[in-house]
Write a structure and sequence with these properties.
By secondary structure, the chain is an alpha/beta fold. It has 9 helices and 8 strands.
Length: about 200
């Protein structure tokens, strides 16, 4: 988009990045490592960091190479998780520019992994396109750290080397998994947020 996305507002005082983060925080996954660019002033995080209920869950991870591609941010997040004690058996990969992902969606992925210990991952899908949020077991940490350039975890989800389950969210996925990548999708997100707000 040519500008940082996470601080963009869907409404006055409602930052794009804060919505996805709140969903993760309320999903029950525990410690969250937030990977950010070095120049991110973190204004979009201010209200959440002031909330004593959530502050202890957050770890800010500055990725110096974030501008070089998605793989660098993934590696930074995995490394942060591996430095935590105890080392987690699995991690959740979420995107800050998916504002309508819900805690229930994340919990559904977690349940799939808990009920199927042989799975390496569980990921979301919209119209056959696999994407985050996703839960990835420790068996894939090395592969995640080995990603190159602007390659995300989707490449691994299609590999025969790993066993996974894809959760297809159907028609609702177009809204829930909306990924804000350009001005058009930002406009969609703003309109969607207003619809949700007006129904309350």
């Amino acid at each position: 988009m040519g500008k940082p996305k996470l601080p963009l507002e869907l409404s006055s005082g409602v930052a794009l990045g804060s919505m996805a983060l709140r969903a993760l925080l309320t999903s029950g996954i525990g410690r969250i490592h937030i990977v950010v660019r070095p120049d991110d002033p973190l204004a979009w995080l201010r209200d959440i960091r002031r909330d004593s209920l959530y502050d202890s869950q957050l770890n800010i991870v500055v990725c110096e190479e974030a501008s070089l591609g998605m793989s660098y941010s993934i590696r930074a997040g995995v490394d942060a998780a591996l430095s935590s004690l105890p080392v987690p058996d699995a991690i959740v990969i979420g995107l800050g520019d998916q504002p309508f992902v819900t805690a229930a969606m994340v919990r559904r992925l977690l349940v799939v992994m808990e009920e199927n210990p042989a799975l390496d991952f569980a990921a979301s899908s919209m119209r056959g396109i696999v994407m985050p949020p996703a839960v990835v077991r420790h068996t894939m940490y090395k592969a995640l750290r080995g990603l190159k350039g602007d390659t995300g975890a989707r490449k691994l989800f299609g590999s025969p080397d790993y066993a996974g389950e894809i959760i297809e969210f159907g028609e609702e996925g177009e809204e829930l998994l909306l990924d804000v990548d350009d001005e058009d999708s930002l406009g969609q997100a703003i309109r969607r947020y207003r619809q949700i707000r007006d129904r309350r």
